[in-house]
Amino acid sequence: MPVRSHPLIDHVVYSLLALVTVAAVTYLDFHLLDVNNSTAAFSYLLVVLGFATRAGIEASVTASLASVFCYNFFFLPPVGSLNVADPQNWVALIAFLVTAVTASHLSAQARKQAQEAGAGRREMSKLYEFSRALMLGDSERKLAGQIAQQIASVFQAPSVAFYSISEDKVYHAGPVEPLLESHSSTEVSAILRVVAKGGEVPNASARFSAVSLGGRALGSLGVAGTQVSDAALSAICQLAAIAMERARVQEAVNRTEFTRQNERLKSTLLDALAHEFKTPLTSIKAAISTVLSQRSHDEVENELLTIVEEEADRLTELVTESIKIARIGAGNIQLQRQPFAVTELVSAALGKLKNLCDGRTIRVSLPEGLAEVDADPDLAELVLRQLLVNALKYSPSSAAIQVSAEERDGWIAIQVADNGPGIPEVEQASVFEKFYRGQADRQRTTGTGMGLTIAREIVQAHGGEIWLESGPGKGARFSFTLPRVLATGEMTE
Amino acid sequence: MTNARIFVIDDEPQIRRVMKTSLTAQGYIVMDAKSGEEGLEVLRREHFDLVLLDMNMPGMNGLETCEQIRRGSDVAIIMLTVRNQEADKIAALDAGADDYITKPFSMPELMARIRANLRRIPLSPLSDGSVIGFDGIEINVATRQVTVQGKEVRFTPKEFELLYYLASNPNIAIPHSKLLQAIWGPDYGREVVYLHVFVNQIRKKIEPNPAKPRYIISEPRVGYRFYLPTKTSSLENP
Predict the structure, then answer these.
(1) Which residues are within 8 A (CB) of A490 and not within 5 positions of it... i.e. 6 or more apart?
(2) I need a surface site. Which of A20, A160, A281, A484 has the fewest CB within 10 A?
């Protein structure tokens, strides 16, 4: 914007110039050219018109008054005296004044329009520059700071503050004072928060505006010391909102892509791990099972070979289970659903825990004619086994463990209850969290601390629920639900 | 089947070693290859009764190798894999394998599978001849050939046996387990996914619209029923 002097000085200078010009024209007309009344009137009119279009109303009125004085004194008879009573005087005065006011008004309007158009053009090009700068902002966090900096530099604002709701942070460009004279930055922040939520700011020396997109508040903007139109300010806010939204979406896309790639990497790693462990196990298993099946061995040989085969099987199972748990822990469950009876599930789980159950009382009570479940048999067994292991671990060896099941609104609920010390209420909410261990058992219990988390993940993947009912001294009762098989006719292949 | 020729394709030398030793001890003639490419090369020159094919190999993987073998051969194929996932089983069977076994496996289990897949079920000609014919489809039991609207369509042995079994027991619902035991052998019964894949493959070959099958009808949760139009039957038609 060009540097301009003070308007009052301008007026005085132009008015003096008007007086000088009128004097010069009078000298020219009266002394040098000796023109008649009409020519003199026209020459004064030209002066008034000239000042009206160029110098504004003040100078042109000055020129009008001076012209009327000179015209009357030098050209209207009696020459050399002022005769205000003469109607010709009034006609001249009114003509000069009307010319001065109309012309200056018209030219002022034209000038104003030209100035506005110029300012509009300049603002447009600045907005364009601003939007281009925002395009380069990559993340939402960086962008909020860039918005403040860019507004300050593009619109030559000495002080800009930008508040981002998502970060609850104010970014400043330039000093705080011009925004709110004698106010601190905390007060500016408070005002920005109010504005962001659609509030009004009373008596602020700077301009504050909310930044929102589609009715969703994103932040607010405070600008001081710049000649920015309301339209431009609103456009700045719109551009800032769009840029922030674009950055937010981009960040979300990046995060999703990162998670997806991470999952894929984990999956690939687990597959590679499974392959690496299982290949030698395959050779061992194939070799030992061939030897065992080929010919009769003496008792000792047979026993030793059987131990090798059983341990190879155990190792295989451990590898399979560890990989399965790692996969589920990484949030990657693939269900292989099929219908099966709860009795099968219970006996499979108890079968696998034969060693652990040795010498313990386990009461299984399943109602007659209980519907089958539609679930992944291996994973469902893992859940039940986890609950059984928990019950066996946390209850005294003399206490019995109850396994029961019932049908509830299309679901089969399976319960494992122990008569152990129970779980205090404060800990109940946390037992399903990763790596959680009961206060009393942190030192003595082995395991990964992932068991119940895995169980919950599996049950939830089936759409079911898992929960705990317990109290100190009352034992613990874990329940989980699996979907019941639909009756024939409800289901297609 | 003694003296049957078995071809092992696996990139793991120890697995090839143990297979060769164990299977040879059982009386089979065994050759091996360490990659899919090498395996295909050998298969062009040599005849085998059964291929044990590893699914997870560098270079050409088991599925691609299986598809390539199927382009020119009806040899029985058992796929070996470390992942016990339904999707893998379907992929293997879709690629043309007849069976699937998860590593690690015991030798007796593998032997049972090999026997089941070497076995060709004896197809007794029906009382009214050796050809089952309906709607322009002909199943020739003697030559093990199927023609659809006059054109010969290739069937793998297991596909042919399944179609033949269904067509020679028409219009009754045959349970999954019975079909599996009839075609694959007594050790089978739970591998319903095999039937899904094989039935889909057969439907693509004989059904005018495989999405809306006319001949091989699914009986949800039970099995399959073959609808034989020309056969008079006391049972209901669909």
Answers:
(1) none
(2) A20
The span from the CA of B181 to the CA of A253, in Å, is 51
Our CA-based measurement puts residue B203 at a distance from the nearest CA of chain A, in whole angstroms, of 15
A490 inside 8 A of chain B by CB: no
What value, to the nearest 5°, has the Cα angle with vertex B64 and ends B62 and B66?
Answer: 65
Q: Are A339 and A412 in contact (CB under 8 A)?
A: no
| Residues 336-375 in A contacting B (C-alpha not used; CB under 8 Å) | 336, 339
CB B25 within 8 A of CB A295: no
Distinct helix (H) and strand (E) counts, chain B? 8, 12
Q: How many helices (H) and strands (E) does chain A have?
A: 13, 11
- Predicted confidence band of residue B125 (pLDDT cuts 50, 70, 90): low
CA distances to A421, B67, B104 from B10, rounded to whole Å, are: 54, 16, 14
pLDDT (tens digit, 9 = 90+) per residue, B5-50?
999 999 999 999 999 999 998 899 999 999 999 999 999 999 999 9
pTM above 0.90, yes or no: no
- What are A169's two structure tokens? 């942070």
What is the C-alpha to C-alpha distance for residues A253 and A172, in angstroms, rounded to an integer? 29
Q: Is the dihedral of CA A450, A453, A456, A460 positive or negative?
A: negative
**Does B17 reach chain A within 8 Å, measured CB to CB?**
yes
Longest Cα separation, chain B: 58
Torsion of CA A163, A167, A171, A176, to 10 degrees: 60
Contact indicator for B47, B5 with CB cutoff of 8 Å: yes
Radius of gyration of chain B (CA): 18
Complex confidence, ipTM: 0.71
Q: How do B216-219 and B173-175 pair as beta strands?
A: unpaired
CA of A355, closest CA in chain B: separation in Å? 23
- Could you give phi then psi for residue A364, rounded to 5 degrees? -110, 125
Segment B154-207, tens digit of pLDDT: 888 888 989 999 988 888 889 999 999 888 888 888 888 889 889 998 999 999
Q: At what angle do helices A230-294 and B107-118 cross, to 10 degrees?
A: 90
What is the DSSP pairing of strand B5-9 with strand B50-54? parallel
